Structures are given as structure tokens and as C-alpha cells.
From TrEMBL:
InterPro entries (UniProt xref): CobW/HypB/UreG_nucleotide-bd, P-loop_NTPase, Zinc-reg_GTPase_activator
Single GO cellular component term: cytoplasm
Coiled coil: none
Domain of life: Bacteria
Name assigned to this protein: CobW/HypB/UreG nucleotide-binding domain-containing protein
Domain CobW/HypB/UreG nucleotide-binding: 7-175
Pfam families (UniProt xref): cobW
Signal peptide range: none
Length: 311
């Protein structure tokens, strides 16, 4: 049987990586491969790694994590040729269109799985009103078979209902599911089971038209800081909070002065950091701004962070 190919989409900070981390815990039945943009965004316990190569990590629980390289075709054709996979789940860039990878569902070796789009319950209404990014978010939602409302534990009931309504309007044919923060592993698996049962998804040219492509390069600007070693994570978290008005997203895996690795993220104006068991070969922090002054804004933010850390 060909592997079911599903797509994970959603705007910057919507919870895609958190969902993928849960799925790599082995909560889905069968053997799953997850394709990500960057290994650094995935918190894999070193004790779970059975083997690894430049682009692939195989885990002891049967899951596989593959990194999308510059040659997407090589990654996808290699997975399509494997006979030991039940499903493949592909993460789309936070400013990308899920249709960029959805066309692979018609490739020999794959069967068409669902498109699941994550939406931050606390931010989606504002994003859909934002003149610079709303069309990107609308395009992502328009092709969803299932919309997963994330971060519901940070929202009040009226906010959840508002987010549900806005997503229903933007994705009228999609199922709307709420992420269960109390049982995230089961919720992640349930979302994909529900998505797979939502009906036969459209493939390739049959996907709904979400309008003409927007110019992501003109709307978003990013910079990667790679020389943040042995830093004070509390100072960095405070400095990031002070730049929340300039940045739509910040995300990194960094090591503090005691040698402990941390995930640190800025999303919807909130900074979150937590320790992790291991880190990438090169620590890095990505800053992303949006709008007509995006390049200037992310540069000001970068300079402020360096000044706060005295770099």
C-alpha cells in the first residue's frame, strides 16, 4: 500500500513544530515519517535516536524525521520509494502555501492524505485583519481539510469561539478541531485520524483557488543570528519581549552559560523558553518581521538583542 501523504501548514508561530514533536512521540499507529524544514525545530530526545544521517533521523519508536534540503525532489522521491511507511507528514514553511507540497500526493508511492492547518487561537483573528499577512493566512486556511486551533489553554472561551468562527469563514469546508493541551499526544493523533476520515482530499489542480500568489519576500524579512553562545537565557527572553512589536516570530535553539540547551520562541507577542535534551550542531536564533519596513524592523531588533547580550 502506498504511504498516505499529509500536509501540515499554518502561519508562523501557529504550533506546527509542537504538533510535530508530539507526533514523533509515536502516538500515531503504524510507521510514520515526518518531513520538517529544519531539524533544529524538533526536540528529539537523544535516547530515542536509533541512527542518523545528514538528512534523516530514525527513532527507536519506529518514526522517521527527515529534513527538507534544497533538493525537495530528492527527499520526497526517496520517501515514496520506501515500502515500510504507513504515512508521511510534511511541514510547510510558516509563510508558505500548503499546495507547494500537496501536489506530491499524486506522486507514485503516495496516496492523498489530508491538509491540516494549525491556527493560533490567540492570534488568528488579528492575523486575518493584518493588511500585510492576511492573504497569506487566508490562503493557508482555504486549502485545509482540517483546521487545528492551538494554544486554547491560553485563550478565554469568547476568544476560542471567535477563532472558531473566523476559521470557519476562511475554511468553510474544513473540520475545526480544538487542541487538547491536557493531553497533547492524543490530541495530535486524533487530529490526523479525523483529518484522514474527513473525506477524499483534492489533489494537485483540484485544490481550491485561494487567489493570486503574494510576494512573501516583500512582506517578510528574516535574519539568523548564529553567534549566540553561552548566553543568559533570562536576559535574552526579556530582550525578545521588548522587540515583540517589531517581530512576528522568533525561534531558536541555544545553549546557556551552563551548557544547557533551550528552545526559545516569540509568537503572538509571547516569549516561551524551555530546556531540551540536545541541540543542533550550530546554535541559531531566527528573527522574522513583516510589513513594508520588515527589513529595517528585524535589523533594529537584532541590534537590540546583541546590545542586551553585550555582543
Amino acid at each position: 500500500m502506498p504511504a498516505e501523504l499529509g500536509i501540515i501548514g499554518g502561519y508562523l508561530g501557529s504550533g506546527k513544530s509542537t504538533l510535530i514533536n508530539r507526533l514523533l512521540d509515536g502516538v500515531l499507529p503504524g510507521r510514520t515519517a515526518v518531513v520538517v524544514n529544519d531539524f533544529g525545530s524538533v526536540n528529539i530526545d537523544s535516547a530515542l535516536i536509533a541512527s542518523s544521517s545528514q538528512d534523516t533521523i530514525e527513532l527507536t519508536n519506529g518514526c522517521i524525521c527527515c529534513q527538507i534540503t534544497d533538493d525537495v525532489s530528492r527527499t520526497m522521491t526517496a520517501l515514496a520509494a520506501r515500502a515500510d511507511l504507513d504515512r508521511v507528514l510534511c511541514e510547510v514553511s510558516g509563510v508558505g502555501d500548503p499546495r507547494q507540497l500537496a501536489s506530491w500526493r499524486a506522486y507514485p508511492g503516495f496516496s492523498a492524505g489530508p491538509i491540516l492547518v494549525c491556527a493560533d487561537t490567540t492570534a488568528i483573528a488579528g492575523l486575518l485583519r493584518n493588511e500585510y499577512v492576511s492573504d497569506t493566512v487566508e490562503r493557508q486556511l482555504a486549502v485545509a481539510d482540517v483546521v487545528l486551533l492551538t494554544k486554547t489553554d491560553l485563550a478565554i472561551p469568547p476568544e476560542i469561539e471567535s477563532a472558531r468562527q473566523r476559521c470557519s469563514e476562511a475554511a468553510p469546508t474544513a473540520r475545526i478541531l480544538l487542541h487538547d493541551a491536557a493531553d497533547p499526544g492524543t490530541a495530535a493523533a486524533a487530529a490526523f485520524v479525523a483529518a484522514s476520515r474527513s473525506g477524499s482530499p483534492a489533489v494537485g489542480g483540484d485544490l481550491p483557488d485561494a487567489g493570486s500568489p503574494d510576494d512573501h519576500a516583500a512582506r517578510h524579512s528574516s535574519v539568523t543570528l548564529r553567534d549566540l553562545n553561552g548566553i543568559d537565557m533570562s536576559v535574552l527572553a526579556t530582550a525578545l519581549s521588548e522587540q515583540a512589536d517589531r517581530l512576528v516570530r522568533a525561534k531558536g535553539v541555544l545553549q546557556d552559560a551552563q551548557g544547557v540547551w533551550h528552545d526559545i520562541q516569540l509568537s503572538a507577542g509571547r516569549v516561551d523558553r524551555r530546556a531540551r535534551s540536545a541541540g543542533p550542531s550550530t546554535p541559531a536564533l531566527v528573527l522574522i518581521a513583516a510589513g513594508p519596513q520588515a527589513e529595517d524592523e528585524r535589523e533594529v531588533a537584532a541590534q537590540a538583542l546583541r546590545a542586551a547580550l553585550r555582543m
